[in-house]
Amino acid sequence: MSENRWLYRASLYELLAQSFLYTTETLAEALTSGEYAEALSELMALNAIAVPGISDENGTVDGSKVGEGDADRSTVEKALLPYEGRASDEVLHELRRDYTRVFIGSRDPLVSPYGGSWYALERGTKPLLFVGKESLAVERFLRRCGVVQPEGTNEPLDHIASELEFLQYLCLLKAGATIAPETADIGPTDYASFYNDHFRWFAQRFATGVITECRTPFFRAAAQVLLALPEEAGD
């Protein structure tokens, strides 16, 4: 694959990672200006990724009328129309409320953002952050490739956003756009290995849960793109 193709893929992973982190003011502003929808739509086209139509039979997307001038917009842009022109602080509050309700919860999240939790449930065992079998496997993989927990943070590395950022890093390495630390041990098949063995199965189940549980069109649209990523990655 060409260097540009790896860069396109890295940019898509970066934007998706930002989408599943706790919503920032910058992201809310990009949604209300339409910049986020435009960027995501462009990256989907560059990566040959398409999602099924979201509009209902009345020509609305999550209750918002899609006008004639929006006919040429991508599916994702139409799904995010409800945010354009709104006050960014209002959108920020709305997204953070939904994020907390779904991904954090008062006790257990409706949709866990941690891969280890999904693998534990599949095996019928209790999910354990940091010390679960999958969580430790992901941490070892990232550490071998030169990625460690940032100082001052306490977030498991199998968070959906962390795994997307790691895939971004591996794509940048393949594009020659960054250099791995001298201590890293990275092979030519590591991108495909991580994607196929650790990321894809978890991402599909996470995305399906988000589409089911989230009330905001933003998270559902981002999850549909996540669900539309290739079934298998090659080198």
What is the compact description of this entry?
By secondary structure, this protein is mainly α. Helices cover 56% and strands 2% of the residues. It has a single domain, classed as Orthogonal Bundle (TorD-like).
Describe the 3D structure.
The chain is mainly alpha-helical and about 240 residues long. The protein has one domain (about 5-225): Orthogonal Bundle (TorD-like). The chain is about 55% helix and about 0% strand.
Could you give the topology of this structure?
Elements lengths: L2 H17 L5 H9 L1 H12 L13 E2 L2 E2 L9 H5 L8 H17 L10 H9 L9 H12 L15 H16 L14 H24 L3 H11 L8
Antiparallel strand pairs: 1-2
Helix pairs in contact: 1-3, 1-8, 2-5, 6-7, 8-9, 9-10
Determine the N-to-C terminus distance.
8 Å
CATH architecture descriptor text = Orthogonal Bundle
Shape: globular
Order of helices and strands: HHHEEHHHHHHH
Unreliable segments (pLDDT under 50, ≥5 consecutive)?
A: 54-72
Strand content: under 5%
Query: Order of strands across the biggest sheet?
Result: 1-2
Supply the CATH class. Mainly Alpha
Which homologous superfamily in CATH is the superfamily?
TorD-like
Q: Which structural class do you get from the secondary structure elements?
A: mainly alpha
Mean pLDDT: 87
- Over the alpha carbons, how many angstroms does the gyration radius reach? 18 Å
What is the count of distinct domains?
1
- CATH fold-type name: TorD-like
Helix run count: 10
